[in-house]
UniProtKB/TrEMBL annotation, chain A:
Residues 104-404 form the Dehydrogenase E1 component domain. The keyword Heme does not apply. It comes from the Eukaryota. The keyword 4Fe-4S does not apply. Keywords: Oxidoreductase. This is Dehydrogenase E1 component domain-containing protein. It comes from Brassica napus. Pfam families: E1_dh.
TrEMBL record, chain B:
SMART domains: Transket_pyr. Keywords: Oxidoreductase. This is 3-methyl-2-oxobutanoate dehydrogenase (2-methylpropanoyl-transferring). The keyword Oxidoreductase applies. Pfam families: Transket_pyr (PF02779), Transketolase_C (PF02780). It catalyses: N(6)-[(R)-lipoyl]-L-lysyl-[protein] + 3-methyl-2-oxobutanoate + H(+) = N(6)-[(R)-S(8)-2-methylpropanoyldihydrolipoyl]-L-lysyl-[protein] + CO2.
Length: 444, 391
C-alpha cells in the first residue's frame, strides 16, 4: 500500500517503521509541498507473542504426526562388523578396543552364569542384558569416571567397565554382608559411590522405571554449578519413555540447561509390550526436539557407533551446558527377567535372528580382529578365565554370611529414631521366642 | 471457626505466647534482637539465612523467582542470583526429582510446592526415591539435603484444592521426616533445622497463618530441634495434642474449658514423623485423658496413630477414651467449611473434655458396670449405667 502523508504525521510513520510493518520508507520533497513521505507497507507476517515472534500463515495446515521419513540411524559397522565407507567415528585405541570387547564378553558370560544360578535356585532373581552389551560397554568407555550414572537396571556393564569386580556383583546378588547395599534390595540392584554409579532404584516387576531421570537432571545441574568437567548420564528403555518422569526430566533438563545425557535403550520390548503398544511416535529420538533437546538415533548393537555418539554427546553436554538425547536401537535378546518367559509373546525365531545376525559381540570382534588386536586364542583364554572367576565369585558369595539383623534398621534415617530402636527390640524378642520361624543364616 | 477467628482477630495471639504457663524450648535469648514478623516473613528470613550460610544451597519451585505466591521467597533471587533461586517448569514430580538429584550430590535443595494439594504428582519421587535413597544404597548415597516446603490447611475460602492437609500420607513413609510449625518463631527455627537435618524433610506451613500470625521472632540464626514436642500450656485434667494452625483453635478451647474449671495441658507435636511419644505419654500419664485435633479428615488421619500408640502405652492410666476432633470425611468443602472444621466448640463438647468426672466416681462407676456385665444381668441396666458412664 502506498501512502502519502504529511510531515506532521511523520512521527506516526516512525512508529510504524519500528513495528516492522513497513517495507520501505521514501522521503520526497517536491518544491510545492514542504515534505512528503511515501510509505510502502507490507502485509504483516510476523507477530509478537510471549515466547517470541512467530510468522503468520493464511493457510490452515496441520503439522503431520510424523515425518515422511523416519530419523536415520547412525552406524559405523555393518551387520558383519565391516567398517562402512565414509563412516565418521571417534578413533579408538587398541587398549580401549580390547578392553571394550573383553568387557562385552565378560558381561555376557556373567549374565549367563548368574542366570543359570537363578535357574538352579541359588539366586532369587536375575535380569540379563543379552543383546545390549554394546550399549553397556561402549557408552561407559566413552564417559569419564567422574560422570555420574543414574542407571535403570540393564546397564551393569557400565559398572563392569569402571572396575566393579565379579565378586562385588555376586555379593549384591546373594545379598551377603559384603553387599554394599547391605542385603536390602533384590539382585541386580547394584550401586557404588566410589564408581559414581547411583544405586538402581525400582523393582523390575513394576512400571516404576524412570524415577531416576529427574534426579539425573538435578545432579547434572550440580555439576554445572560446581564447574566440573563431568556430566550426568541416565539410562532407560522404550517403556520407560512413557513414564511421566521422562517428560518431566527432559523438560527440566532443557530449561535448566543441565549437562545430562539421556540414553534410551530402545530394545523393542517392555516386558511383553512391543513398541507399537508403547508409543506412536517415530521412536524416542523425535521426542527430544519437542523439549528443545538435541538428539541422535544410533545403532545400539554397533559398539563403535555407540562409543562415538556418547563421546560427542558428552562433549556437547559439558561444553554447551545442554542435555542430549541418544536413542540406541537394539533388541532384548533375553527375557525381561528370570520371572519372564518371552517365548509366550514373541517368536523364538525372532529372538534367534537378533542373537545371530545383529550380535553386538560378533560385529565388534570382527572389527577388532581386522585391526590385528584379537585372536581365537585370546578369546578362549578370556572365556576360561572369566568362567573360573565367576564360579569362584559365586562360591564365595554363597558362603559369605548375610548382613547382620541390625542393618534392617540402620540407614532408614541417618540415625535410627526411637521407634526403630524399640521395634528392633521387639523383633529380637520374637526371634528368641520362636527361632524356628526365622531364617537362621542372618546373624543377630 | 478458623475463618471466624480470623475475621475477628487480625493478628492472632499465637498459641503458647500469651498468658498462662508455658515451657520455653526455643533457643532464643532475651537479649537477642527480635522483630515482629508474620509467618511468611519468618520463613523468608530462614531461607535467607539458609542460603547465606551454605553456598551450596538452592531454593526453587513454581514462581519462587519473583517472591512466590505467598511471598515466602521475596528477595532471594535478587540477593543470591538466578542460578541458586529460580523458577521451575510446572511439574511437581520434576521439581522434587530435580531436588533429589541436587541433594544426592551434597547440596541443600529447598523445594517449594505451591500448595500441599498439588504435592501428589511428587508422591512417587518422595516415597520411592527420597525416602529410600540412603537405605537402598547401604548408606553409599543419601538425599538428606532435600527439604520440601508446602503451604497446607484451611484458609477460609480454599475449597478442595487450596485447603488440604495431607500430612497423614507422608507420616506413613519410613525415611522422611514431617514437620509442621505453629507460629512464625517456631517456623523459622524448625525450617532451619529441617534444611540442615541430614534426612529429607517435608515441611508443611499453615497458610492461614502466613499473614494472620504475628510474633516476635529473633533475628539471628537459630534452630529448634526436630522430633521434640513442646508442652505449650501446662495442665492436669486433660492433654490436648495438635500441630500447626489447629493449635490456635485448641488454645481457645483450653481457655473456655478453664472457665469451667478444667485444667488443660496443650502439646504442640511439631514433628509428626518421627514423633515424640515420650512427651505425650508423660502428659497423658499425668492427666489420664487425651484429645487430638487436626484439620485433616478423621479416618486414617494422624490422630489415629497417636491414639493407638497412647492406648498401647497408657491404657491403665486412661480415664476416658481418646478423643479425636478432626475434619470430616469429605473433600474439603467451600460453603460448608465452617461446618467441616474442627472448631473449639467441637473440641469443648467432645467426651474427653466435657465430662471430667472425679477419679473416684469414675472408678466406682466403672466397677459397677464391670460387675453387672460379668453377672450377665439385664442389658437395660447396663445401658442406663453406660449413659451415666459416658455423659
Amino acid at each position: 500500500m502506498r501512502l502519502a502523508i504529511s510531515a506532521t504525521t511523520y512521527r506516526m510513520v516512525l512508529l510504524l517503521r519500528d513495528s516492522h510493518q513497513i517495507q520501505s520508507l521514501v522521503i520526497v520533497t517536491p518544491w510545492w509541498i514542504r515534505s512528503q513521505v511515501l510509505v510502502h507497507t507490507k502485509t504483516p507476517i510476523v507477530m509478537d507473542f510471549p515466547g517470541g515472534k512467530v510468522a503468520f500463515t493464511p493457510e490452515i495446515h496441520f503439522i503431520s504426526e510424523s515425518n515422511e521419513e523416519r530419523v536415520p540411524c547412525y552406524r559405523v559397522l555393518d551387520d558383519n562388523g565391516q567398517q562402512l565407507t565414509n563412516s565418521q567415528f571417534v578413533p579408538v585405541s587398541k587398549e580401549i578396543a580390547v578392553k571394550m570387547y573383553s568387557d562385552m564378553v565378560t558381561l555376557q558370560m556373567m549374565d549367563n552364569i548368574f542366570y543359570e544360578a537363578q535357574r538352579q535356585g541359588r539366586l532369587s532373581f536375575y535380569a540379563t542384558a543379552f543383546g545390549e552389551e554394546a550399549i553397556n560397554i561402549a557408552s561407559a568407555a566413552a564417559l569419564s569416571p567422574d560422570d555420574v550414572i543414574f542407571p535403570q537396571y540393564r546397564e551393569p556393564g557400565v559398572l563392569l567397565w569402571r572396575g566393579f569386580t565379579l565378586q562385588e556383583f555376586a555379593n549384591q546378588c546373594f545379598g551377603n554382608k559384603s553387599d554394599y547395599g547391605k542385603g536390602r534390595q533384590m539382585p541386580v540392584h547394584y550401586g557404588s559411590n566410589k564408581l559414581n554409579y547411583f544405586t538402581v532404584s525400582a523393582t523390575i516387576a513394576y512400571s516404576l522405571l524412570t524415577q531416576l531421570l529427574p534426579n539425573a537432571v538435578g545432579a547434572a545441574y550440580s555439576l554445572k554449578m560446581d564447574e566440573k568437567d563431568a556430566c550426568a548420564v541416565t539410562f532407560f528403555g522404550d517403556g520407560g519413555s512413557s513414564e511421566g518422569d521422562f517428560h518431566a526430566a527432559l523438560n527440566f533438563a532443557a530449561v535448566m540447561e543441565a549437562p545430562v545425557l539421556f540414553i534410551c535403550r530402545n530394545n523393542g520390548w517392555a516386558i511383553s509390550t512391543p513398541t507399537s503398544d508403547q508409543f506412536r511416535s517415530d521412536g524416542v529420538v523425535v521426542k527430544g526436539r519437542a523439549y528443545g533437546i538435541r538428539s541422535i538415533r544410533v545403532d545400539g548393537n554397533d559398539a563403535l557407533a555407540m562409543y562415538s555418539a556418547v563421546h560427542e554427546a558428552r562433549e556437547m553436554a559439558i561444553r554447551e551446558h545442554r542435555p542430549i538425547l541418544i536413542e540406541a536401537l537394539t533388541y532384548r535378546v533375553g527375557h525381561h527377567s528370570t520371572s519372564d518367559d518371552s517365548t509366550r509373546y514373541r517368536s523364538a525365531d525372532e529372538i534367534e535372528w537378533w542373537n545371530k545376525a545383529r550380535n553386538p559381540l560378533s560385529r565388534f570382534r570382527t572389527w577388532v580382529e581386522s585391526n590385528g588386536w584379537w585372536s581365537d586364542e585370546a578369546e578362549s583364554d578370556l572365556r576360561s578365565k572369566i568362567k573360573k572367576e565367576m564360579l569362584e565369585a559365586i562360591r564365595v558369595a554363597e558362603k559369605t554370611e548375610k548382613p547382620n539383623l541390625n542393618h534392617m534398621f540402620s540407614d532408614v534415617y541417618d540415625v535410627p529414631p526411637l521407634n526403630l530402636r524399640e521395634q528392633e527390640l521387639l523383633v529380637r524378642q520374637a526371634i528368641k521366642s520362636h527361632p524356628q520361624d526365622y531364617p537362621s543364616d542372618v546373624p543377630l | 471457626m478458623a475463618s471466624l477467628l480470623g475475621r475477628f482477630c487480625r493478628k492472632l495471639v499465637v498459641p503458647g505466647s500469651a498468658h498462662g504457663s508455658r515451657m520455653i524450648s526455643t533457643t532464643a535469648c532475651d537479649s537477642e534482637a527480635v522483630k515482629s514478623l508474620n509467618l511468611y516473613s519468618a520463613i523468608n528470613q530462614a531461607l535467607h539465612i539458609a542460603l547465606e550460610t551454605d553456598p551450596r544451597s538452592y531454593v526453587f519451585g513454581e514462581d519462587v523467582g519473583f517472591g512466590g505466591v505467598f511471598r515466602c521467597t521475596t528477595g532471594l533471587a535478587e540477593r543470591f542470583g538466578k542460578n541458586r533461586v529460580f523458577n521451575t517448569p510446572l511439574c511437581e514430580q520434576g521439581i522434587v526429582g530435580f531436588g533429589i538429584g541436587l541433594a544426592a550430590m551434597g547440596n541443600r535443595a529447598v523445594v517449594e510446592i505451591q500448595f500441599a494439594d498439588y504435592i501428589y504428582p511428587a508422591f512417587d519421587q518422595i516415597v520411592n526415591e527420597a525416602a529410600k535413597f540412603r537405605y537402598r544404597s547401604g548408606n553409599q548415597f543419601n538425599c538428606g539435603g532435600l527439604t520440601i516446603r508446602a503451604p497446607y490447611g484451611a484458609v477460609g475460602h480454599g475449597g478442595h484444592y487450596h485447603s488440604q492437609s495431607p500430612e497423614a500420607f507422608f507420616c506413613h513413609v519410613p525415611g522422611i521426616k514431617v514437620v509442621i510449625p505453629r507460629s512464625p518463631r517456631e517456623a523459622k527455627g524448625l525450617l532451619l533445622s529441617s534444611i540442615r537435618d541430614p534426612n529429607p524433610v517435608v515441611f508443611f506451613e499453615p497458610k492461614w497463618l502466613y499473614r494472620q500470625a504475628v510474633e516476635e521472632v529473633p533475628e539471628h540464626d537459630y534452630m529448634i530441634p526436630l522430633s521434640q514436642a513442646e508442652v505449650i500450656r501446662e495442665g492436669n485434667d486433660i492433654t490436648l495434642v495438635g500441630w500447626g494452625a489447629q493449635l490456635t483453635v485448641m488454645e481457645q478451647a483450653c481457655l473456655d474449658a478453664e472457665k469451667e474449671g478444667i485444667s488443660c495441658e496443650l502439646i504442640d507435636l511439631k514433628t509428626l514423623l518421627p514423633w515424640d511419644k515420650e512427651t505425650v505419654e508423660a502428659s497423658v500419664k499425668k492427666t489420664g485423658r487425651l484429645l487430638i485435633s487436626h484439620e485433616a479428615p478423621v479416618t486414617g488421619g494422624f490422630g489415629a496413630e497417636i491414639s493407638a500408640t497412647i492406648l498401647e502405652r497408657c491404657f491403665l492410666k486412661l480415664e476416658a477414651p481418646v478423643s479425636r476432633v478432626c475434619g470430616l470425611d469429605t473433600p474439603f468443602p467451600l460453603v460448608f467449611e465452617p461446618f467441616y472444621m474442627p472448631t473449639k466448640n467441637k473440641a469443648s463438647s467432645s467426651s474427653s473434655l466435657s465430662s471430667p468426672l472425679k477419679k473416684k466416681h469414675y472408678l466406682i462407676m466403672g466397677l459397677h458396670v464391670w460387675c453387672r456385665y460379668w453377672m450377665q444381668s439385664s442389658p437395660l441396666l447396663i445401658t442406663s449405667h453406660s449413659i451415666c458412664f459416658f455423659r
